[in-house]
Amino acid sequence: DAKTTQPNSMESNEEEPVHLPCNHSTISGTDYIHWYRQLPSQGPEYVIHGLTSNVNNRMASLAIAEDRKSSTLILHRATLRDAAVYYCILRVRGGSQGNLIFGKGTKLSVKP
Amino acid sequence: GAGVSQSPRYKVTKRGQDVALRCDPISGHVSLYWYRQALGQGPEFLTYFNYEAQQDKSGLPNDRFSAERPEGSISTLTIQRTEQRDSAMYRCASSLAPQGPLNYEQYFGPGTRLTVT
After folding, report:
1. Closest chain A CA to residue B55
2. Given the DSSP bridges, would you call strands A70-75 and A18-23 parallel, antiparallel or unpaired?
3. 3-state secondary structure (DSSP) of residue B86
């Protein structure tokens, strides 16, 4: 499976935008880019996913580089509740291989 | 609606004992996954089911670990002859469909914290 590389940790101030980067230089044309996050003492939760085009939902935006070798999860206004570990994961499009392969993720701290 | 539930939430057992961890997925979800998570690490895949069929058990560490989902709903992860290294958070997740556009999101349960003394 293709690997992703993320910074170990990042800090943000409350109510400021946060850009969480992810490198996936070995991504194939059939891989979707998924983001999950894990709040303290909770299970992971889905955030967003995309293939080629940028995506927006109520939680975040996903900006995908034109060559798809990197992507950025954007939280438009960080809140204290956004403090979590964020995981960038590649999944094969339409594949039956269902499991998620988590790396170490990026631990986001949000300062008031 | 009800999310994924797991029981027990905490389990303390002595080395050598068998344990059974239960997962109740979201109603109607076809796929069910088991993961194990050590402190400070991301979840690690163990096995998964579509309906009652075990699709992939490549992540099970050894033959002391087994899982079943006999009626395509509730699943049980069993660890025989537990060892201290089995201590971890065991998480279950489910998704609506095994593949295609509906399989993009997995819903995770709260986990079972297993401690082997």
Report:
1. A97
2. antiparallel
3. helix
Comparing alpha-carbon positions, the chain A residue that sits nearest to B40 is A104
CA gyration radius for chain B?
A: 14
**Confidence at residue B97, expressed as pLDDT on a 0 to 100 scale:** 79
Contact call for residues A32 and A68 (beta carbons, < 8 A): no
Residues of A with CB below 8 A from B95's CB?
A: 98
Q: What's the pLDDT score for residue B101?
A: 58
Contacting residues for B107 by C-beta, under 8 A, at least 6 apart: A45, A46, B3, B4, B26, B29, B93, B94, B95
Distance CA A70, CA A24 (A): 5
DSSP class of residue A41 equals T
3-state helix, strand and coil shares in percent for chain B, rounded to the nearest 5? 5, 45, 50
Query: Could you list the mean pLDDT of each consecutive 10-residue stretch along chain B, which spans 117 residues?
Result: 92 98 96 93 93 92 97 97 97 84 80 98
What confidence category does residue A2 fall into, taking pLDDT thresholds of 50, 70 and 90?
low
CA A14/CA A29 separation, integer angstroms = 36
Q: Are B42 and A107 in contact (CB under 8 A)?
A: no
Say whether residue B5 is in contact with chain A using an 8 A CB cutoff.
no
pLDDT digits (tens, 9 = 90+) for A52-90: 999 999 999 999 999 999 999 999 999 999 999 999 998
Could you give phi then psi for residue A81, rounded to 5 degrees? Answer: -70, -15
B107 near A CB under 8 A: yes
